[in-house]
Amino acid sequence: MARVFTYCCSILLIIYGISNIYAQDENSYVSHVTDSHAKHQALQQLLPFLQSQEINTWKNKVSREQLLRKARVAAVNTTALDSMLKTILGNDNVQAILKNLMPQLSSVANSKELTGMLQSVLTSITKNQTLQQKQQLYSDLMKGNILGLMKDVDPNVLQSVIKSVAGNITNGNLPLANSLPGILSNGVNAEAIATYAFVFLRSRILSSNSSNMCKQDILKTITGLSNTQPWALKMLDASAKPQPDIMDININWYGSYDECIADYTILDQVHVLPRNASIPVVKSQYCTVSIYPPLPDSARGLMGIFGGGLIKAGVCAPKSCSQNDILLLSNQFFASVPIGKQQFYATKVDCVKERPYETKDIAVITLLGVFGVILVLGTLYDLVNVQYPEYKRRKMDEQSINDTMDPSSIYKLKSFDEKPADVEKETKFEEGVFGKVLLSFSIYTNAKKILNTSQPRGTLTAVNGIRFLSMTWVILGHSWSFTATSQYGSNFGPYASAFFKRKSAQAILNALFSVDTFFVLSGLLTSYLTLKQMSKVKGKINWFMFYFHRFWRLTPAYMILIAFSVGVAHHVINGPNAPKPDETCPKYWWWNLLYINNFVDSSAKLCVGWSWYLNNDMQFYVLSPLMIVPLFFKDIIGIISCAVFLAVTTITTGVLSHHFSWNPSVVGGGKHPGGDVFKDYYIKPYCRMGPYICGIFTGYLLYKFKNKCQINIFVNLGLWGVATASASAALYGLHDAFNGHPLSNEVSSLYNALSRTVWGAAVSWVIFACGTGNGGPINTLLSWKAMVPLSRLTYCAYLVHPLIIYAYNGSHPQTVYLSDIDLIYKFFGNLVMAYGVAFIFSLCFESPFMGLEKVLFSGMSKKK
Q1: From residue 412, how far is each of 198, 419, 420, 425 by CA, in Å?
Q2: How far is Cα 555 from Cα 621, in angstroms, rounded to an integer?
Q3: For residue range 611-622, what is the model confidence (pLDDT) as tens digits?
Q4: pLDDT at residue 675 in the model
Q5: In whole angstroms, what is the distance from residue 245 CA to residue 491 CA?
Q6: Which H or E run contains 252?
Q7: Please, what sign has the CA dihedral across residues 727, 730, 736, 739?
């Protein structure tokens, strides 16, 4: 502490002695200090004073007049100060001395000599000091406001002063809260502030627990910044800065990913910013730091909607820094930001790394390559051995018909050895088992099957339109919910707030009912087709094939999608929003294979999250014979069976919803929400079976009525009105609940218990009316032939569309401005892309296995 006193006294001796001796003339001062002889003489005159006994009683006798009198006898240089430091000791009242002496510095004249003097003084002071002593020294100097009082000093000198004051404490923590406000309040110039910032950062870096390599590269980057090196400026420019609309919760500040990972910028390439070869270049990487802001507890619930209330800031950091290094450095910096009792702190760091191809990735790519080879071979085999001979036969038949139609042909004489056309037999190519297997993979033949618009007699043609429109609705809902988030939308807060207030928005917010439509269709077709098959074989049915066909129909494409998600998807897109490698499916994929992953105890274990629908559908299919068989043999028993299943699922849903205080929707709407609505309610079969039962019963009615049922026009219109009103109530009934008037627990429980069954019943009426000739123009629209191939692609479109949306959103390294026009445009793009990719996916992985099933079980089919 006494050395601080020595430091202050030394400054006064030099400044006031020199300024008074030379009549406070800056030019005369400069000329004098350059005179080496005068320096030497001043040193000789000052040393006796510094070594005298009088200094021991300095703190009781010091005064401005005494200091001036001593200073006038000689000019002092830095060597003399070194001797003074060894003599002046023992002063404990540093704050009192600083209070008296610091105001005297306000008349300091510009002096480059001051720079060297301060550097020498502080080097001597801190040479043998502990870290705590250095920090105390710095704190005392800042409280004395030494830097603030020197605002009129030459900026270069002042920067050196700051380096001298703070640079000796670089292994400690600079007290930013105590020093920086004092500096700013006294009008220190920008260069001084910048210098202080570099010194401050250096101190925080060296005092952190990050790796030495990381520290060294960050210090090199700071050096590069201070020397305006392009690569260092690029790293700073690419890092995040606070964005506008913070009050509207715009808290995703990604910076520039592309600039960070680039070797050169445009300005660098045109040599606007020349490089200094003597300063080594630091390689950079892009990382995202999740920052917990100091918000009151009352704001936490609201912020939970916006990415958990975490600020996500992009940082362009040295490649040598690990994620843990950046986390430590971030918190080291935040700890010194003066914002009161609470403070920012980083919770997680994610760095975008080059993702190596692991064994599982190579295995998946190899598997896809094998499929590609088989598809090429199968297509070539089909074209050479089937399609080309068929093409030649058609040409010959056309030529034969043309010859027959030619009048001149009746005058031609036939040779004796020419056989009649009907006698000559055409030899048609017969495929063996291997050939049939290859033909199953023919892209040409499978494409013809998918695009074929013909339908067999008795088909429920309206189902095609309902299936396609429901898939369109699913993609619409996912396009909005996956995109209109704080992660992707810079204006998500105000946009979502305005969007929720519209009544029309319920068609998107409640697009969850589109899945219930699929449950209706699944139950309907299972019941209708099974009952028709049972009627042909007098109730006898091969139950092994009943279950195997369903498993074989869904599983191959489903498993290929999981394999693609595990091994390929994360290599397609890179950037701050790119999908992370799938760590769930490698552990829990077998749950999907068994169609039970909707019973996971945590949503985090849900492999391919949207597959919950397939699991529910398979579980309903397994239980369906318990309703279908009784309906075939004894109507009343079948009806009772359906009623029991419906009662059980309705009561179970209502009781559980009331007990756990579930929201009426995964979006919200409850007064006292509780539990995980998605995991505990939305994906559980015992809460979702109502629409499937409606579908089973509707299929039974269509089978019974043989697709013919005349209904009075007024009764028909009345039933259409009831169905429309019921569906609208279920769909739009939560508008007020989403806008400040949440439902009570009782009403929420009633809604959860009945709404999906009500929706399923309304859809069932549409199918029944269209299937029995009571659909009018609605049936005409839904039965449009263009819907047929689109309907065939619905399953694959459901599988692939989330990956397409994720890939598109993940390719954006920046947030986007959300608007209705933007989301509509993205929806149509997602729709077209989903069905385009679904067509390819079906050609490669769905249709071939459907063909293989026919080859493998052709003998069983013939026996039937």
Answers
A1: 105, 15, 14, 23
A2: 14
A3: 999 999 999 999
A4: 79
A5: 8
A6: strand 252-253
A7: negative
CA distance 550 to 552: 5
Cα–Cα distance measured from residue 477 to residue 517, given in angstroms and rounded to the nearest whole number: 14
Q: How far is residue 864's CA from residue 861's CA, in Å, rounded to a whole number?
A: 5
Say how many Å lie between the first and final Cα of the chain, rounded: 103
Whether residue 581 contacts residue 355, with contact meaning beta carbons closer than 8 Å, is answered with yes
Q: Which residues of 818-833 are buried (b: 16+ CB within 10 A; e: fewer)?
A: beeeebeebbeebbeb
Q: Which two tokens stand for residue 350?
A: 């994610």
* DSSP letter string, 281-349: PPPEEEEEEEEE----GGGHHHHTTTGGG-EEEEEEEETT--HHHHHHHHHHHHTTS--SS---EEEEE
Q: Which of residues 677 and 485 earns the better pLDDT score?
A: 677
Report the share of the chain in percent with pLDDT over 70.
70
- Pairwise CA distance, residues 666 & 682, whole Å: 8
**CA torsion, ordered 257, 261, 266, 268, to nearest 10 deg:** 140
Sign of CA dihedral 690, 696, 700, 701: positive
Give the range among 13-27, 38-52, 812-826 with minimum mean pLDDT: 13-27
Task: Say how many C-beta atoms besides its own lie within 10 A of residue 290's C-beta.
Answer: 17
Residues 6+ apart with CB under 8 A from 699: 523, 524, 525, 526, 527, 528, 529, 531
Per-residue confidence band for 637, with pLDDT thresholds at 50, 70 and 90: very high
Q: Are 291 and 344 in contact (CB under 8 A)?
A: yes
Residue pointed to by tokens 């998500």? 492
* Strands, sheet with 345-351, edge to edge from the N-terminal-most edge strand: 252-253, 311-318, 284-292, 345-351
The angle, 0 to 180 degrees and rounded to 10, between the axes of the packed helices 2-21 and 78-87 is: 140
- Within 13 Å, how many C-alpha atoms sit on residue 333's CB side? 16
Give the up-direction half-sphere exposure of residue 612: CA atoms within 13 A in the CB hemisphere. 23
Spatial separation of the C-alpha atoms in residues 393 and 424, rounded to whole Å: 13
Three-state DSSP at 399 gives: helix
Q: Would you say 486 and 307 are in contact if contact means Cβ atoms under 8 Å apart? A: yes
Of 857, 856, 850, 788, give the one whose Cα is nearest residue 554: 850
> What is the distance between the alpha carbons of residues 536 and 250, in angstroms, rounded to a whole number?
64
Residue position matching structure tokens 């006031």? 16
Residue 70 CA to residue 73 CA, distance in Å, equals 6
Q: Is the sign of the CA dihedral 261, 265, 269, 273 positive or negative?
A: negative
Which residues, other chains included, contact 27 with Cβ-Cβ below 8 Å and sequence gap of 6+?
A: none
Burial class (CB in 10 A: 0-12, 13-18, 19+), 277: exposed
CA angle 70, 75, 76 (to 5 degrees): 90
Residue with tokens 């014979």: 625
User: CA 189, CA 161: separation in Å to the nearest integer?
Assistant: 13
- Distance between CA atoms of 112 and 635, rounded to whole angstroms? 106
Longest pairwise C-alpha distance within the chain: 149
Q: Is 170:208 a contact under the CB 8 Å cutoff? A: no
Q: Rounded to whole angstroms, how far apart are CA atoms 35 and 41?
A: 10
Encoding tokens for residue 124? Answer: 């001597």
Band (297; pLDDT cuts 50, 70, 90): low
Q: Tokens in use for 621?
A: 């299919």
Give the Cα separation of 199 and 530 in Å (integer).
Answer: 79
CB-CB contact of 199 with 174 (8 Å): yes
Q: Distance (Å, rounded) from C-alpha 124 to C-alpha 174?
A: 19
Give the three-state DSSP class for 236: helix
* Residue located via tokens 């994360």: 570
